[in-house]
Design a protein that fits this description.
This protein has 269 residues and is mainly alpha-helical. The protein has one domain (8-268): Ribonucleotide Reductase, subunit A. The protein is built from 10 helices and 2 strands, in the order βααααααααααβ. The longest helix has 30 residues, at 23-52.
């Protein structure tokens, strides 16, 4: 694992339908980008809360946590730059206030172990999304190559640090049923939050009530890309008691990072 800093800039003008000229896929990935800075900030704070309590007594795991949090901070910064551009184009992150309220309530009623279980679930879901993005070339037709690199760099590093949250969860004594609760919470919130923000983005773009948009939605979710069935198939093993984060896409991630190393500056290992 390494800490990599992006060495490129996004275009000042990006096509509104920057992903394959597909309105639904574009707004779906715009929505994910909107979520990342808040989500990754939450993950970082969850890890730091545990380390502040001196619950990590393994030096190797501590080093992994250091790199994990640094990678997540880099992802957050890169996506925030893109999100600022989206905001200026009339696509604000409307759900941010709701995220902050829900997070505050959740933190008050749950322990650090439960918060880590939720973080672990989100990290596993993100790793699956990242694997599908790399394997199935979901970002193959992006108008701005630097934007494409940002997404695939993020995807590759999500795969690279896919197991750290789980290792920490095991280290502090997290159990099976709490892990399942974390996944249920994550799935429900991803489905509700993503649907709401995508619909808002499509409405603000004037694309919500176009038949073509919903044909594209079906094609991405259940048709040609089969994003939902493929994601569900990879999520299913999580219910097993002896589950461990699988090595999905590790070779793809390593290959992409190696081939694109000129676009990053390594800050640490």
């Amino acid at each position: 694992m390494q800490i990599r800093k992006i060495q490129f800039q996004l275009l000042k003008e990006i096509e509104p339908l920057w992903l394959a000229n597909n309105s639904f896929k574009t707004q779906f990935f715009n929505t994910l980008s909107m979520f990342f800075p808040f989500g990754e900030g939450y993950f970082i704070e969850t890890f730091r809360d545990i380390t502040r309590k001196n619950l990590v007594r393994d030096l190797a795991l501590s080093e992994k946590i250091r790199i994990f949090t640094a990678q997540e901070a880099m992802h957050s910064h890169a996506h925030q730059e893109f999100n600022d551009y989206l905001h200026d184009q009339g696509l604000p992150f409307t759900l941010l206030g709701w995220f902050e309220v829900r997070s505050s309530i959740f933190n008050k009623i749950h322990s650090h172990t439960t918060k880590l279980a939720v973080t672990m679930a989100y990290e596993h879901i993100t790793a699956i999304f990242s694997y599908l993005a790399l394997r199935d070339n979901l970002l193959g037709d992006v108008c701005d190559q630097n934007l494409k690199r940002m997404w695939l760099w993020h995807a590759s590093e999500e795969i690279e640090h896919r197991s750290i949250a789980f290792e920490l969860y095991q280290h502090i004594g997290g159990g099976y049923w709490r892990r399942q609760y974390g996944m249920l919470f994550a799935i429900l919130n991803i489905c509700i939050d993503t649907s709401a923000q995508v619909i808002l983005n499509l409405y603000r773009s004037g694309l919500l009530f176009k038949l073509k948009t919903w044909r594209e939605a079906y094609g991405f979710m259940f048709g040609r890309d089969r994003f939902i069935p493929l994601s569900a198939r990879k999520l299913y093993p999580f219910i097993k008691p002896q589950w461990y984060p699988p090595e999905l896409g590790v070779n793809l991630a390593e290959q992409w990072l190696k081939e694109n190393s000129d676009y990053f500056r390594v800050l640490g290992k």
